[in-house]
Write a structure and sequence with these properties.
By secondary structure, the protein is mainly α. It contains 9 helices and 3 strands; from the N terminus they run ααααααααββαβ. The protein has a 3-stranded mixed sheet. The protein is elongated.
């Protein structure tokens, strides 16, 4: 997956969320709507998350060291996992707390609209519509960049199978942001229409539940990447075929792959060679096989091939 596409989507999301956060905070201070505060904090969390993704992408490019001989490619997974934690705590849990706090106020003072019914009642509606427009731009960019690498996979499979974390994270964040804006518009709009602040509480609650759910999905998927995932089935088949078709290699006894980063793949295989081959012949075969693997799978940066003789399994 292209790093450039992910970076473009992250930058677009960052610019959109900074502008959205500012306008939401202005609307909250003018009206006191809890949905606006929840959405403002959500946008701040998203902006911080995008900074984390950009920072992770930059630090992952460091050269390998003696202590980290396989490089730092997995740093992108680490920061993506931190994003899920931030989204869960700063976004989701704060929204749920704000909903609980506002509900207590509504129960103690039924029908009290506060500043929501004041002279600035129209501000949150304008802000939410403008935010939906800006967030749609970010979401459209993420979809465009994802389509370049998604192929025929469904969106669910793309999020689950993608080895590069940036695009799936931005897709889910933008989806949650757009849906949350709709919830906020629903809550604020119905509260203004009915003069009942309980709808604002409902909108805030829905925002919190949505962010918690998205954060859990992100956490589960990035945890799998952190633990270490193998290459895709297609990539494994290409690598195995490259080995089998290499001169001097009779077959593949077994093979394992591991992503050291989104664009860095480790390949370890035990290959079947002829007992009549000399050490020099085997070395040439391994060199040729490595070149064949890299030709069909450029992400295979680290390759270990162990020559062996295929032995029939003893019968019980």
């Amino acid at each position: 997956m292209s790093t450039q596409g992910g970076t473009k989507a992250v930058v677009a999301a960052l610019l959109a969320n900074v502008g959205i956060a500012i306008t939401k905070f202005v609307a909250f201070f003018l009206t006191g709507a809890s949905s606006m505060l929840a959405e403002a904090i959500h946008s701040v969390a998203d902006s911080g998350n995008q900074v984390l993704l950009l920072f992770g992408g930059r630090t992952a490019q460091r050269a390998p060291t003696a202590q980290h001989p396989f490089g730092f490619g997995r740093e992108r997974y680490v920061y993506a996992f931190i994003v899920s934690i931030v989204l869960f705590s700063v976004g989701g849990l704060f929204a749920l707390y704000e909903a609980y706090h506002k509900l207590q106020h509504v129960l103690e003072h039924p029908g009290d609209m506060g500043d929501m019914a004041g002279r600035w009642w129209w501000v949150p509606l304008v802000v939410l519509v403008a935010a939906i427009v800006m967030e749609s731009f970010s979401f459209h960019t993420a979809i465009q960049e994802s389509n370049k690498v998604r192929g025929s996979a469904s969106w669910v499979d793309f999020v689950r199978r993608a080895k590069s974390p940036e695009l799936p994270v931005i897709l889910l964040e933008d989806f949650a942001a757009l849906t949350g804006l709709v919830f906020a518009l629903f809550g604020v709009g119905l509260s203004l229409l009915t003069h009942n602040p309980i709808f604002d509480v409902m909108g805030t609650t829905l925002i919190g539940l949505l962010l918690v759910a998205v954060a859990v999905v992100l956490g589960v998927e990035t945890k799998s990447l952190l633990l270490g995932e193998s290459a895709s089935i297609d990539a494994q088949e290409r690598i195995a075929e490259a080995l089998r078709s290499s001169e001097g290699i009779l077959g593949v006894i077994h093979m394992k792959t591991l992503h050291l980063g989104p664009e860095e793949l480790l390949v370890a295989a035990k290959i079947d060679v002829s007992a009549a081959d000399s050490a020099a012949d085997i070395a040439r075969s391994i060199d040729a096989a490595e070149a064949s693997i890299r030709a069909v799978e450029p992400t295979a940066r680290v390759i270990y091939l162990e020559p062996d003789l295929r032995r029939e399994q003893s019968r019980p």
